[in-house]
Write a structure and sequence with these properties.
With 576 residues, this protein is mainly alpha-helical. 66% of the residues lie in helices and 3% in strands. It has a 3-stranded mixed beta sheet with strand order 3-5-4, sandwiched between helices. Strand 1 and strand 2 form a beta hairpin.
């Protein structure tokens, strides 16, 4: 039930870890002292950067994985800080590369001439980024300061959550365990857990507000210096995504928000509520099988069986992860909440962290994270500088894998169990459209307010409630919302990537569109799909999607994806 990290390193004191750790400062020095005065020198630095990236990725992955399951581990915290400090110095060579590339001419032709044409897009992107760069010294200072600024605030937030306890039913439980009770079959348990959860947050709210203010203030300052009008502009640039794509997606969402609100009201009525769905019943299971819990072995078998219906390769990736213990399964004290997947390019592997509680939703989460792993295994066939695909694309493969598991199961389940699966699918859609929309609105309002002053806990609570009311409308009971959602969501606490919310909506809706294409011709789709995933780190989003015939700048495409959700709601309504 615990993941095995020995393939990465045997420990912080192992010879391999020490050798790699001592090597990376030398590689940074080589890159920083190399003159960038010709495209030949660019090619030399790129090869150095490949070696450096593989080593620091391995070191950093190991440190973060150890920390994720033991936030009190002093070695993990120390090496995370030291690695971030070393990595900050690479900002110097990136400024000099960008400066040269901005005036280099035909980057595609020059890249081919010097044998690095696989990275032509990355180099072009770097040239364009030069317009948003500060001086070499300023970029280096800002990067170094982030290790004791936003990076430190983010780690503090992780520690606060991993050690936060709730007083529930006369006993003390961790926050992850408490939140898992939202899926319990008993209405009394769900409500009591919700109340215990909300009662726990004031213990850490002031500290989390300080972390939020520190991070958002830092991002505002840096974006101003880098000549971005707003942090969202920087996120779109880093995501290789056009404003036209984001506008098209949100235009489609805005026009169809009510369908999910109506689903919530339908569920509320079935549960005996009159004024919309209380937050504590948002994840209430439906159907006679709602009380069923699943063992981890059942979850593994369920996922593998349905992955196999898509492709033998996808099933093989999942089984490899299980057989080689790449998954850390259960919640425990000192372990971070939520779930994630991280890859390790140097050994062509990945690791998945779960907080598995046995609900059907936990099985879908397992499929989601293994979807990230499958994506990683595809892009790791490319050069390492092409493996860092943008966040919106990161959520596409994972959501697609959710749909494989959900839709394959729906074809064989009896009505009671089918209702549960449809409900789970609609819960997911509600989260990644309505809740993500509320998070997007909240973060946007925080960035604007933070320009004037640090926000208090009361202000952050008020902004969260306002965002939830606007996004959920009459779907949620206005008297039973979640003012502390800004505390629990780790996505707000990153200085390097703001607005880590809309990528979920993008990935979910894109996956719905992809699944429609898949159903038309399953045999031909699998190979194209793998090509699409491999290309995700080496071209803009709208270009990689064209491999599968999708125009992400078209409102009609996004509307067609939302139509899939509407059809699911109709089927759910008929069963309920």
């Amino acid at each position: 039930m615990n993941w095995d990290l020995n393939d990465i390193y045997k420990g912080f004191d192992s010879k391999e870890f020490r050798d790699d750790f001592l090597e990376i400062p030398k590689l940074v020095e080589k890159m920083n002292t190399k003159n960038v005065d010709s495209f030949s020198s660019v090619a030399v630095i790129i090869r150095l950067l490949e070696d450096y990236s593989a080593k620091i990725d391995r070191l950093s992955s190991y440190s973060h994985f150890v920390y994720a399951t033991d936030t009190a581990n002093a070695d993990a915290s120390r090496f995370i800080y030291l690695l971030e400090t070393i990595h900050a110095e690479t900002s110097r060579v990136k400024v000099r590369l960008a400066s040269y590339l901005a005036g280099a001419g035909d980057i595609a032709a020059l890249s081919k001439e010097h044998g690095i044409d696989e990275y032509a897009y990355q180099l072009q992107h770097m040239a364009e980024e030069y317009n948003h760069m500060m001086t070499e010294d300023e970029e280096a200072v800002v990067a170094q300061m982030a290790t004791t600024g936003s990076g430190a605030w983010g780690m503090l937030h992780d520690k606060l959550l991993s050690t936060l306890s709730c007083d529930y039913d006369g006993r003390t439980i961790g926050i992850s365990e408490c939140r898992n009770l939202a899926y319990d079959a008993s209405p009394a348990v769900r409500k009591a857990a919700y109340e215990a959860e909300l009662a726990a947050y004031p213990k850490i709210a002031e500290s989390c507000a300080a972390a939020m203010n520190g991070i958002k203030g830092e991002v505002n300052f840096i974006c101003e210096k880098q000549k971005y009008d707003h942090p969202l502009d920087r996120t779109l640039f880093d995501s290789n995504m056009t404003q036209k794509t984001l506008d098209a997606m949100f235009s489609a969402i805005d026009s169809d928000l009510q369908c999910l609100r109506d689903y919530m009201k339908l569920k509320a009525k079935k549960l005996g509520h009159k004024n919309g769905l209380p937050f504590y019943d948002m994840f209430a299971p439906m159907g006679d099988s709602g009380s069923k819990t699943y063992s981890y072995d059942e979850a593994k078998d369920f996922v593998c069986e349905n992955f196999g219906k898509f492709s033998a390769n996808m099933e093989k990736v999942a089984r490899t992860a299980f057989e080689k213990d790449w998954v850390d399964v259960e919640p425990r004290e000192g372990k971070v909440g939520g779930a994630f997947c991280g890859d390790i390019y140097a050994i062509k592997q990945f690791r998945v962290l779960l907080n598995f509680g046995g609900s059907l939703s936990d099985i879908i989460t397992l499929a989601h994270e293994l979807g990230h792993g499958y994506h990683s295994m595809q892009v790791m066939q490319e050069g390492i500088l092409n493996t860092h695909y943008p966040m919106p694309m990161a959520e596409t493969a994972s959501t697609f894998c959710e749909m494989i598991v959900t839709n394959a199961a729906l074809k064989t389940l009896p009505d009671n169990a089918k209702l549960q699966m449809l409900e789970n699918s609609l819960q997911d859609s509600t989260q990644v459209i309505l809740d993500i929309y509320s998070r997007f609105l909240f973060e946007k309002s925080v960035f604007y307010a933070r320009k004037d002053h640090p926000l208090s806990v009361d202000e952050l609570n008020a902004q969260m409630l306002a965002a939830q009311k606007k996004a959920y409308g009459d779907g949620l009971d206005p008297k039973n919302l979640h003012p502390y959602m800004w505390v629990i969501k780790t996505h707000y606490y990153s200085g390097s990537f703001s607005f880590y919310n809309f990528p979920y909506a993008f990935g979910h809706l894109l996956a719905l569109g992809l699944y429609k294409i898949y159903e038309k011709d399953p045999t031909a789709f699998a190979e194209k799909y793998d090509t699409f995933l491999r290309a995700s780190g080496k071209m803009p989003i709208n270009e990689s999607c064209k491999i599968l015939g999708i125009d992400t700048e078209s409102v009609d495409f996004w509307k067609s994806a939302i139509d899939v959700i509407k059809n699911t709601i109709k089927e759910f309504e008929g069963l309920i």
